[in-house]
Amino acid sequence: MNALVSELLAFIARPAVSDDDFNALALRLFAHQFEHNRPFQKFCQGRGKTPRVVKSWQDIPAVPINAFKDLTLSCVAPETCARTFMTSGTTRGDVKGRHFHPTMSVYDASMLRNFAQHVMQGDAKLRMGLLFPTEVLMPNSSLAHYLALAIDHFGTPDSAYYLDENGLRTDALCEALQHAQDSGEPFALLGASYSFVHLMDALQACGQTFQLPAGSRLLDTGGFKGQSREVPMDAFYDQLSATFGVSRYQCLNMYGMTELSTQFYDAGNRHVPSVKRGPHWIRSRLVDPLTGQDVAAGERGILAHTDLANFNSVVTILTEDVGQAIDDGFVLLGRAEGAQAKGCSMAVDNFLKAAQA
Amino acid sequence: MTAPIFKAGYLPGLNHADVAWHRLSLGSPHAPLLVDVPQLSAAQMTVLAQRVQHASHSHLKTMHVSDIVRVLDMATARLLDPRDAYRQQLERLLPQATGFDAEMVRLNLNAYLQTFRGLQLQRFVAEDFANPKVLDEFQPRTQGGWTRAFGPELLVHVWAGNVPALPMWSFVSGLLVKAGSIGKVSSAEPVFATLFARLLAEVEPRWADCFAVVWWPSGAAQERTAFALADVVLAYGGNEALQAMQAHVPVTTRFLPHGHKLSFGMVSAAALSVHKAPGVVRQAALDVARYDQQGCYSPHVFYVQRGAPVSPKDFAQHLANSLVGLQHKLPRRVLSLEEAAQVGAWREAHEFASLNDDSTELSGTGLSTVVYSDHPLPLTAGPLNRHVLVVAVDTLDEVLALIAPQRDYLQTVGLAAAPEELLLLGEGLGKAGVTRICALGAMTSPEAGWHHDGRFSLLDLVRMVDIEASTEREAERFTPYEV
């Protein structure tokens, strides 16, 4: 595995790669995972996809993210892993998906390189404010780790967390924002989308707005997840822009998942839904969830990602997100919610609701 | 390519130009169908209701039930005639609107329409009224006095669109009890009721103003208006939708909801000889394939008894093969991305279970799946669209505990069992909440006069009026002549 990790790190460090290079490494990872992960092996065998017959990365079976809840997807004993990230468990009650990372070196390299390019955009350091708890408070949150990497590697010494076990530290944050506004030093505010909603609600209540200096940027991620009111995307970015004085071009959104080791970014949210792109070690397809085949060009499909940084779990995952291919990236069109039954017949979703009632 | 446009609705007395029309996009991206549905103002709804009530007074309530049956029989005969223009429109538009395969619609429509011919309709009436003449005039009661059944002045229907032509049940029921009717079509299937209304008006011109077919967005103000004018509201739909409707029904109006239902099959060891099992499996597969399990009577699970030459696991395997075979004759409709994702999630859940232990097995294609389970799984709803669970049990009595949590939702059981098992099982199933037991292969075609969800189709619509014996006895004292 160490050889694989070294190869992966070298791969991530390269400026660019060819299709063949990507394919070759994806197939190596697939073979590795097939050999060392019994549940994954059975999953693949059930679909007649073994390393013997799979010849292209597109053909690697995409593992539905629910499998992270039901199966142990790891090539090494989970207890030997450096970190285990868990999903928030919002969709299926207390059952949480688990993603095992034997070493953080790959995840970190993936995050740092990609973050430097899309968020730092040439800046070495920025003063940061984080709207999320620390890694110590949330040791199983991949987002907490992601933000810790951001602040440790790219934050100036006066960067800080503004969310802890007591909630949002609005006064301290306002002070920092005011200071940034007065000093002209660019500021980066990063956090969960729903925390931005809570913050904006708090600021609106006291009639407070800011004009952050040029070069400032906002990064939200994760959507609202029922943690705050649902805000339509256009209204959300309008309000962000108006509250902090940052153009929608510098309101960035990161699309990431606990089940991945690599993130996607857009180039601002002047227009929504914005086009998301990933770095050269992740590729995405839009598929029919039943056949796993690519949908016709331009049609809506379920996103499947082949993330080479997922070296220990599964290299290709099938999400529950609906997307559409645009240029060299994709736009997100929401989640594939259970289809509404049309009449008095009952389909799973309705039944679940009925059973819980 | 421009999509064809179908103008839905039947609005006697209203000028189409005065009505606001809402356009629905139905069909698939490859074969779109645009449907314009009428969205009436409160004033228009009121005028329409008055017209329908007035006409039904003059032309429907004055007819004898047997004459009404005769008219309906003629209309059904037209719809069964492949050369008839209405039949041809149905065959063209229903597959387009619903996405169901044309052959599937054609075959199911025939089986369905056969329950609406004269003979069947008379049985339908007799099922609820021992003496059907009680719908025409006061009839003497054996214990003295007189009784007559009056249908509603205005019956408002809210139809669902899960199965094509579904509105015919309540449309016909309304006519048999001589009610003026206003029906709201579903956005998913606005075709059948529209064409049926037009056909009836053609077959019996005096009925032209006795009913109307309209549309409104769920929960809209028109709903309140229509419900306020109705004597009886008969509604099909999801439980949440029904709950919302109920809030709009005045307390003095009778509300007859048909909500979420869950159906399943049971196969006794008696039916699983090497000789008999293939036929049983074929019938079970048809129940699954017909309308892709979209009906409330469609099976989600088959409980199969162990101990026969053909094991439950064999049954599952044969069922999967049968479904693959049926794909040629009755192709499944194309699923939306959301439906496909739901099916995928269901399959994955069982797939993961099969990876963790050997008691679960999946068989099938991307178009249909049979999941076999060796564990006694409780009854749950599947993702429809030809995806079923086959569960092995030692005895069919065991099933009663497995279905108990779904009591409020139980409807049809497709049963393959020996004669001596029938009544015993029927007793248990009835107690458990089931309202209909039929042969496998008949699940999607209820007989004429069935008790839908355990209720009376016609009796529930009427108001019985009694002239008690005392009145008659006393009346004798008031004759102008002395006895």
Describe the structure.
The complex is a heterodimer of chains A (357) and B (483). Chain A is an alpha/beta fold and 357 residues long. Chain A has 2 domains: 2-85 and 282-321, no CATH class; 106-277, 3-Layer(aba) Sandwich (Rossmann fold). Helices cover 34% and strands 20% of the residues of chain A. Chain A has 10 helices and 15 strands. In chain A, the strands form 4 sheets. Chain A has a 6-stranded mixed beta sheet with strand order 5-4-8-9-10-11, sandwiched between helices. In chain A, strands 1, 12, 13, 14 and 15 form a 5-stranded mixed beta sheet that branches. In chain A, helix 8 (193-205) packs across helix 9 (233-244). The model of chain A is unreliable at 350-357 (pLDDT under 50). With 483 residues, chain B is of the alpha/beta class. Chain B has helices spanning 42-59, 65-80, 85-98, 102-113, 118-128, 167-176, 191-203, 221-229, 239-246, 277-289, 312-329, 337-356, 398-403, 419-432, 469-475; strands spanning 5-7, 20-27, 32-39, 139-140, 146-150, 154-158, 180-184, 211-214, 232-236, 254-258, 262-267, 299-305, 360-364, 369-373, 387-393, 410-416, 436-438, 463-467. Chain B folds into 2 domains: 5-259 and 457-467, Aldehyde Dehydrogenase, Chain A, domain 1 (3-Layer(aba) Sandwich), CATH 3.40.605.10; 262-450, Aldehyde Dehydrogenase, Chain A, domain 2, CATH 3.40.309. In chain B, the strands form 4 sheets. Chain B has a 7-stranded mixed beta sheet, sandwiched between helices. In chain B, strands 8-7-6-9-10 form a 5-stranded parallel beta sheet, with helices on both faces. Chain B is 39% helix and 20% strand. In chain B, strand 7 (180-184), helix 7 and strand 8 (211-214) form a beta-alpha-beta unit. The radius of gyration of chain B is 24 Å and the shape is globular. Chain B is built from 15 helices and 18 strands. The chains are: A alpha/beta (357), B alpha/beta (483).
